[in-house]
Write a structure and sequence with these properties.
Shape of chain A: globular
Order of helices and strands of chain A: HHHHHHHHHHHHHHHHHHHHHHH
Largest sheet of chain A: none
CATH class of one domain in chain B: Alpha Beta
Structural class of chain B: alpha/beta
CATH architecture of one domain in chain B: 3-Layer(aba) Sandwich
Radius of gyration of chain A: 25 Å
Helix content of chain B: 55-70%
Radius of gyration of chain B: 23 Å
Strand content of chain B: 5-15%
Number of strands of chain A: 0
Oligomer: heterodimer
Distance between the termini of chain B: 101 Å
Distance between the termini of chain A: 16 Å
Strand order of the largest sheet of chain B: 2-1-3-4-5
Number of domains of chain A: 2
Number of helices of chain B: 12
Number of helices of chain A: 23
Strand content of chain A: under 5%
Amino acid sequence: MLFQTPEFLVLFIIVLGWLIWNRNARQQQLFLLITSYIFYGWWDARFVLLIILSTLIDYTAALGIDNHRLSAKKRIKMASIMGVATLGLMLPNWPELQTQGLSAFIDNPLVTLNTENYAAISLGLMFSVIGPIAYGFYFKLSDKGRKKAFLITSIIANLGMLAFFKYFNFFIDSIDTVVAQSGIEWAAPALKVTLPVGISFYTFQTMSYTIDAYRGDIKAERSLLKVALFVAYFPQLVAGPILRPQQLFPTLDKPWTVTGQSMRSGMNLALVGLFKKVLIADNVAPMVNTIFENPGGQSSIVIMLGAALFAVQIYCDFSGYTDIARGISRVFGVEIPLNFNFPYFSTSIIDFWRKWHISLSSWLRDYLYIPLGGSRKGPSFTYINLMLTMLLGGLWHGASWNFVIWGGYQGVLLCLNRVLQAIAPKDTTLYRVLHTKVGTFFRWGATTYLWLLGWLIFRVSDFNDLAYCMQKYVLFDGRLSLGAIGLGRGSPVTALLAITLFCMLHLVGFVSKRWDERLNSTPWPIRVVIYATLGILFFYGWPSQSSAFIYFQF
Amino acid sequence: MPEAKPKLESVRAIAELCTIAIPILAGVVIAYVVLSVFIIPRIGFPGDLSRIVKLEERLDSSPVDSNRVVLVSNSVGVEGLEATSVQQELDSGFAVENQAVNSLDLLSGRLYIGRVLESNPQILVWILRPETIGRIVPINPEVASAMRFANFHNQADWLNEQTIPGLSPDARSRLDATDFQTLVSLRSIPLRHLNDQVRVRTRKGVLPPKPLELNAPYQINQDIAGQKLQRHLDQIAFNLDERTKDDNIDGIAFIQSTIQQILQTSTTPILVIAPTNPLADEAFSNAEVAFAQAMNEISQSTGVVVIDLTKTLSSDEFADAIHPNRGGARKFSAILGQALRSHFDQTAREQN
């Protein structure tokens, strides 16, 4: 279910009504959990099973780490939840209902059991039987052994699901390519694995819960309902920000309250997000697609324009989603942390990664880079750790080699940035020169040039096209005409206007106040005019081809 | 009084929501009024939803076994063909239907022809312009959504490889049927109201369309001239350039595969090369020659008749760079009717 669709509007109004009407914390949470599952199941109901499985594993793992042994009754209850969820989500013909409608579903209410369905049902039922038995064995281990066993189980289960659903096809395709190139006639077994929306986000979120419990940073939550809501909370479920347990659990101790202030502030933030997504990102997307669908033959300036347009698109798409998610949550009375802090004004690559997708970069820092040793083991290990972190961070974005290359590229830039820091420490002349106004502008320009090149790697997946684009980006060919852009007459002007408009809005937000904050403090008669203007803009600017958020695929 | 504060807060929250939602809705209403009263009358709307819906209804109600000649084309046919004039030139045994759709291109044409074939016409006359020799351009989203709305194709096979071959995966994913449904459901209400007015006011002097008279709905009677005409000619030349600038010339192969699709049914296809404006000769001469040659090759390989009407109209008979005016439409229709009759007579003689 996309935020910009009528069905989401209905869901939002229902949830809002419930939170206003019902002041019982537990009932609110139960309702939010059900709506979160509906929200996620809207794409494919069967994938809700993955979230339930992930929830049960991490709930029990964290409790086990905390040495809290569940009673037999509770274990049976959880096994029953898993069993019923498996049968209830895998046996009915939900795909028929979702694609063909109710009458088709009534005609054909049960799925045809093929190998994949059998495997999923068997695994689900097996887990509901074996889980409670294995659980008992873990408590026979030493304290340290039990904690490790629960942690490792959780990590293997979560990463296993992620690896299977996200990387299986990539892995098989890569093997096939290597085998084919070596001349051997063999094909790896093919499976039709569909990527569940946002699996990378909620997998990382659930893992942080168990790891934090293992580290003793949090106390394992006793309520399954709260853990389930933490995993599935719908505003940020499919594209983050990746929440930490400390950010949501404290809010669950009391009922959520929708106030006048939270409504205004949250709706304003959500409207800013919708503006970015619908009016900027979705309108820029066709231009970006046209340029990069077949970039061969395009001039340097067109490739650069394409990179700039994609930078605008991806920022407005992703930060727009985050703003809507944060805004909706704020309306409900819960604050979700900032995920973007004007990254395009960064003056170094390190700075950029502190401001871009903050929840992912801080996750990678806390759960990967620092455990690998961070910068504690000398410069060589620091560079190795940075490279490893960014390569895996790149792969996290998608099962494709261009994301690995993109991660590697970011890793190299971060290492070079560190080298530069070592060459020019704070008390040197070079440092002082680089931090004058001109020096700061130069650093911003260089950083912008480098991350724009990074976006080319991110966007262009075909290697030949990518090589061409990078060559054109780095070696300017001197052709200044935009006429060959291939977007039709007038479109270069539209493209430049889109970039200019974005830069102006972004700059104003950066140098003074964020747009949502500005709206919050605007007197209501002026706000009414602004809202009406937004209504007009939405009517005219709503794209004819509404598209999903780019980060949903991750 | 512990409940008083939360209740007050709830009221405040609802009031805040109203101060946001009502102005936004008011903005949407204002935008709609401005669109229908000021903008649409000036710029027009490409999708022609109501026309497509009515064309679909007519296909549904057409008698299956009659001698029907269906004319398929884009705006050149919508504005430049009078089915009655074509019919007058043919003998009375034929019922001519002008099923032209504005902005119909090769991709949407393939979808559309598939639907036309379901109504089992005896003859399908496909009128094409020389620029179709070039690269296949993406499907016009408004046409596609209108066709989707008119149930030309059910959702299951809407975008598969057989229905629209040659569509890139990226373009295919952007044309996802669910998005279309949302788009269409969001826009169908304003479209229904606005579409009938569109062509009335698009061009000053255009006669009001008679929606049920699908065979000759518009009939341009005021030509554009001077700078406006030059701009239109430049635009057409630019579009031709865009479509033929690289080596990826796949339009002909696409036409050929569509012809093969028609030949698998009991319908006989006839290809017609539409008249071009002599004023656009400079831009079109190369494309015209190449296109005529390609059509002849298709004719030789498939046995399909090609009628070349490229040079049949003078520049006075065009309302703009490509659309025949009222006089041009009458002449074009008559010439087409005569050409068809001559072809049928010849076929009959050969059979005897």
